[in-house]
Inverse folding.
């Protein structure tokens, strides 16, 4: 029995077996959180650029269509975010006090079901909402953050008044 107490071979493996899973879990949690926050910040950037695109009248000059807006979003979102997974809600209001979003409705895949595209013009107050589903890589992170039956959805919004048309002299 004394011989086994003095034998240190295998102690490192035993320590790693105890500490390793905890360390790996913390490392995956950090990586998953970083990816989620990166995606959230990138979506904020896309929202900012999209709002600016609408606000400055560039969308109006591009045809004021949902396809033109989608093309613009795809041009600024790649390679980090799949632009086809982004849902955009654009609504026009007469006054800032009128701005109200209905609660978003999402399907089981995390795609918005009640988002719409409302044409806007110069001087309009435009509220833009943008969302996108996010899937955690590890089941443990998904269950810890959301529970078993929920989807993670990144959602941001912006409200701004479109710029008036610039008068040009003939």
């Amino acid at each position: 029995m004394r011989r086994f107490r003095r034998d240190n071979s295998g102690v490192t493996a035993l320590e790693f077996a105890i500490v390793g899973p905890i360390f790996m879990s913390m490392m995956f949690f950090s990586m998953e959180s970083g990816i989620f926050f990166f995606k959230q910040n990138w979506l904020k950037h896309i929202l900012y650029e999209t709002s600016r695109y609408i606000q400055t009248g560039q969308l109006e000059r591009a045809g004021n269509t949902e396809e033109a807006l989608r093309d613009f979003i795809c041009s600024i979102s790649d390679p980090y975010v799949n632009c086809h997974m982004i849902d955009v809600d654009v609504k026009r209001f007469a006054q800032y006090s009128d701005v109200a979003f209905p609660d978003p409705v999402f399907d089981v895949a995390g795609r918005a079901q009640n988002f719409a595209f409302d044409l806007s013009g110069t001087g309009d107050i435009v509220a833009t909402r943008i969302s996108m589903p996010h899937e955690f890589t590890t089941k443990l992170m998904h269950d810890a953050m959301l529970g078993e039956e929920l989807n993670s959805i990144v959602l941001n919004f912006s409200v701004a008044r479109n710029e008036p048309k610039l008068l040009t002299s003939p």
Observations:
- The longest strand covers residues 125-134.
- The chain has a mean pLDDT of 82.
